[in-house]
């Protein structure tokens, strides 16, 4: 990340968070600081929200800058906007910090061109679980408004990963909206962000110390509950027996993989012909173990997916939203990701400048591998 | 049932037959009658790799019209290519055959004959499962390009170019500075007693410039190169106007030279530009430009100290040429004025060529006061040396001339990466073998000559240049065909996401990104089929021919069945 900004500009937020953000965006659109903007908008039935790329700024009135749910991680939408061909317009996107992080990872994998977009983010109070929301959208909208209204950082209704999220604030976005009690601060976090603020004739004259302290307090609490949650989840994935137990309910729909913004492959290895063995092989496996669960390779799928994407997992929780049988995939993946990322001294989504550990090819890593093996041996010794 | 798999078990004399029950192998394999609806022909032979064995195999392939062949024999390292050749002769595509190693992996490592036989049967079965998934691959022939790229316009580069052009070989000579000559262009004299003087060097430059087979590119650097012996694709960049030139060549002679260490980088050498302390190269430049060796005041020095071995301990090697050139500098000094007192402080005297000793002794008798020391320090204009008796003496001569260590050129790392050649721990290039292959590198078709592989004299540079030219002329023959690897990688467009991870791991620069289609593409002429990209591809969109997932899966599955 570039240097942490020291000052921000104060925004009038008397009319509530959603309205203040809309007012800001409308003004920026009037000043032609971007050519298009991508925002969540309620779908016609009123039961869900979708990402809409707005060219006609009149439509801004119908947008919901902070949607109560996250049906699609914004990074997936941004990928569609920027992956192929150079864009000629400046597109602003207002997204959550975890979505910014997904964008960062996808940019490193050459799936997103950041040149074409201005990323705006905000201190995120979380999102409601998809399944809770669609059961009763009216309740959902009311509850979420209440969370925003009261700045309830400890809501019991948000997604489980949101409850333990410690990266809910300033991210690698260009402009970040900081929330502190009744105040809203616009914080430029890159040159693009500074240009945008300057274009709005806004002066970054507010010290950010209070806001930083406010965020730090929330983060400390979140880190504690994260540690607690991980202690529990650890036992669910330690060893084959526990994995088997945890994933035995999996119906092999691969929804978690389709929803995952990091799973960017056109075809998943686990959907390819290689993982669909001939029937004689299936029979052979049944013969060896006495019986085999079908469809095949449930644990293989999940552990394989972990191996493929956990270094870039940004804990957005969409996998859990997508799971029809309520396996706590998001918590599990989030925990495993925290461990794998620790191993590589890497934090997914932190900065556009960090190289992906698996994309860098360094001969000295052979030495590191030796170290890892050594450490593992020491740890094993410790258990005795 | 048109497909026929021939399975031939080699006795390898007693090597296999005494440890493995071949009869049982034949029985059990033949019993797999309905193996994937293929007809099986199972036989044994005393020694398949012998002349008789090869003839037998050839006859069997032809007579039975085999579509697939298994040789259950030794390690593929021994005879894989032998049996491939038999296939070619018999008209069977060599990629429809598979060697199964029942010698090293069964007979030689398992003492229990029954168990060794079981394992052999299982491995042959695995080989059969693989071979039916194999596909014929067609080898192509490419014309090889006999032209040569020479990098560096110093003595070594000039000589390489001239020797190659002497056999009418087209040479592209690339020099990064504006003129040819290299470091020695600054020398007023080469070593006069060896009969070489500046005229020799200037003549070489002239010859190069007018030779119709040599095209000289000055102010030019190598910006990109991919390929292999016989087929390098090269991009040169002119540093003055940024223009690019694309070339093809079959070999590369790298003669990028050396640099002289900065004495101030070594401990104990503290002085500024205002002090009367000079490196040998500064003196060479001064003498060649002004015909004089003077102090900053413009006056001639009365006393000059010559200091050998500056930084030798730190770099860890003798720079070979310094003793010689300090003697030459003494010669310059005495020719300027016979009154100059020359104090020569050496630690070890290195005079390797047959005339060096005589030259030194002649000057030493007249003008050089040589003294063996164990260490030297410079502080401003003061020079302190430690004699062999351990006593320190400080003197303040009018001028101090240092002979700093020869160190690798700054661009050695750049060239090592670009040309995929190894560096020695000193930072000089690593020869393929210092004694038996001293100008070759670990990359076929890339040669290193001159001081980029270690300090060397002008005569050594010339010898090496001629050696490399000889290598090129014998390895790269006009009209010779190249058969590129056919077991190469291919990227499946439908699955590639264009993340370019494969570009990072390709050691041959064989993959490029096609921005138009948003995918990565393999240049098959350059790919060596190592499979790095296959392992790195997150989407599984790359496969290496003859080592595809289904092929490996079938083999491994069968090998692990029990």
Report what the structure shows.
The complex is a heterodimer of chains A (384) and B (562). Chain A has 384 residues and is of the alpha/beta class. Chain A has 2 domains: 8-222, no CATH class; 229-353, no CATH class. Chain A has 15 helices and 8 strands. In chain A, strands 3-2-4-5-6-7-1-8 form an 8-stranded mixed beta sheet. Chain A is globular, with a radius of gyration of 22 Å. By secondary structure, chain B is α/β, with parallel strands linked by helices. Chain B is built from 17 helices and 28 strands. In chain B, the strands form 8 sheets. In chain B, strands 14, 15, 16, 17, 18, 19, 20 and 21 form an 8-stranded mixed beta sheet that branches. In chain B, strands 8-7-6-12-23 form a 5-stranded parallel beta sheet, with helices on one face. A 4-stranded parallel beta sheet of chain B has the order 2-1-3-4, with helices on both faces. In chain B, a hairpin with a 2-residue loop joins strand 18 and strand 19. Chain B is elongated, with a radius of gyration of 32 Å. At the A-B interface, loops of A face helix 15 and helix 17 of B.
Shape of chain A: globular
Mean pLDDT of chain B: 93
**Helix segment tally of chain A:** 15
Instruction: Work out the number of β strands of chain A.
Output: 8
Major sheet characteristics of chain B: 8 strands, mixed
User: What gyration radius of chain A follows from the Cα positions, in whole Å?
Assistant: 22 Å
Enumerate the spans of chain B where pLDDT stays under 50 for 5 or more consecutive residues.
none
Query: Secondary-structure element order of chain A, as H and E?
Result: EHEEHEHEHHHEEHEHHHHHHHH
Largest interface: A-B, 21 and 21 residues
Main sheet specs of chain A: 8 strands, mixed
Overall number of structural domains of chain A: 2
Total DSSP helices of chain B: 17
Low-pLDDT segments, ≥5 res of chain A: none
Mean pLDDT over the residues of chain A: 90
Q: Supply the helix-strand structural class of chain A.
A: alpha/beta
